[in-house]
Amino acid sequence: MTAFNKDYFLGEVYEVNPQGVGIKFASVKVSADFHYEGIGGNVGDFIVIEGKNYGFLARINEITLQNALNAGDFNSGGGVFGKAELLLTFKISQPDKAQKTVFIYPAIGEKVYCCSNEQVQLYVQSFGKNNKAAEVFADLGVLVSNEVKCNVSLNALFKRHCAVVGTTGGGKSWTVSKLLEEVIDKTNNKIILFDATGEYNTIKSKTYVLGQNAYFPYQKLTLQDLFILLRPSAQSQRSTLLEAARSLKIVRLSGKTGTYKKAYMQRKEYNSFYEKFVKEIEDNSCNFDINYLVPQLKEECVSYFPEGWGAADVKMYDMQASLVNTIINMLNTSVFNDLFGFKNISSQSESIIDAVENFLTDPQNQILRINLENVSSLFYAKEITANALGSYLLEKARKREFTKNPLILVVDEAHQFLNKNADYGSSADGESFPLNAFDLIAKECRKHGVFLC
Question: Which residues on adjacent β-strands are paired with residue 422?
Answer without folding.
Answer: 433
